[in-house]
Write a structure and sequence with these properties.
By secondary structure, this protein is of the alpha+beta class. A three-stranded antiparallel beta sheet has the order 2-1-3. The radius of gyration is 12 Å and the shape is globular. It starts with a strand and ends in a 12-residue tail after the last helix.
Length: 103
């Protein structure tokens, strides 16, 4: 289930990663996630699983993944699907960059 626009994140270490699908995001959440807690993290795990079972649109899981990244202090780049992602970024005081990573 590839996303039409991949999600790029910058880890707290400064390393940039790109995620092209629900499967990629869920694998990262389950095996490499730095904090393993948080409301948005738990929600992203749940919604990515639902998207893989095809009971939830993959775009919803994408938004949940972006929200979890922002909650964990990672910057995210990629076109947001709704204004909710921008609100989360604002609340987390993280700049959402729709065209890539800025200086």
């Amino acid at each position: 289930m590839p996303w039409s626009v991949p999600v790029s994140i910058r880890l707290q270490s400064g390393v940039e990663r790109s995620f092209a699908s629900v499967y990629d995001a869920l694998d990262f959440l389950q095996n490499e996630w730095p904090t393993r807690h948080g409301y948005r993290y738990e929600r992203a795990i749940q919604q990515c699983g639902e998207a893989l079972r095809r009971t939830l649109p993959s775009a919803v899981a994408r938004e949940a993944f972006i929200a979890a990244c922002l909650e964990a202090g990672m910057s995210a780049a990629g076109r947001p699907q709704t204004a909710a992602v921008k609100q989360i970024a604002s609340a987390a005081q993280v700049k959402f960059q729709p065209t890539g990573f800025g200086a």
